[in-house]
Design a protein that fits this description.
The structure is a single chain. By secondary structure, the chain is mainly α. Helix content is about 70%, strand content about 0%. It contains 7 helices and no strands. It has helices at about 10-35, 50-75, 75-85, 95-120, 125-140, 145-150, 165-190.
Length: about 190
């Protein structure tokens, strides 16, 4: 820890340390707020809907996405080096088995996500227990009138988006972050 303030360290090393600390704090924030807003883990901890806590959770989630994008951009050369080693032989030729295996794994992942999204309802297995817990919690902490009437103001942001669209959205966000950070870091490295 004391070495991080040593002047002999490069700015990139110091920035990476700060970035890792911020990632740790933001992921901790996601975990803590996620547990606090969970109606399954601690159903009686917070009465009703705590929108402020949900908003804090969303801020931590977006901050973590941003920080992960910056982290990937700073380590892009290393990531590409690993992929080159995986996909090329020692002679410099493309390793066809590794490429085919990677494509098949990706296709299997996308296909399974599609199948799960269309054929499996994730809450069906837990629905009776969940309904029982919600009924018990509703007796102790009745929900606000607006929530009972279906006027939940945040429901448009929390829904049943297709998992592939969610993943694609995250990768698009990362691309928007990674590309400029990579080129800024590359330009700073050349100076």
């Amino acid at each position: 820890m004391k070495k991080i303030f040593d002047r002999s360290l490069s700015g990139k090393t110091r920035f990476s340390f700060l970035l890792n600390v911020l990632l740790l704090l933001s992921m901790t924030g996601i975990i803590v707020t996620g547990i606090l807003i969970s109606k399954v883990v601690f159903p009686h901890l917070l009465s009703g809907e705590n929108h402020a806590l949900r908003e804090i959770h969303d801020v931590f989630a977006k901050l973590t996405l941003l920080l992960v994008g910056v982290h990937i951009a700073l380590h892009w050369q290393w990531i590409m080096g690993v992929f080159r080693k995986m996909l090329k032989t020692k002679e410099g030729n493309w390793n066809k088995k590794a490429i085919v295996t990677s494509v098949l794994i990706l296709a299997l992942f996308i296909g399974s996500m599609q199948w799960l999204a269309t054929n499996v309802k994730p809450n069906e297995a837990f629905k009776p227990k969940f309904e029982q817990k919600v009924a018990q919690a509703s007796e102790t902490f009745p929900p606000p009138e607006k929530f009972r009437e279906g006027e939940f103001p945040y429901k448009e942001r929390h829904g049943n988006s297709h998992p592939l669209f969610v993943i694609l959205g995250h990768f698009t966000f990362w691309a928007v972050v990674i590309v400029p950070v990579y080129y800024i870091e590359k330009r700073m490295r050349h100076k």
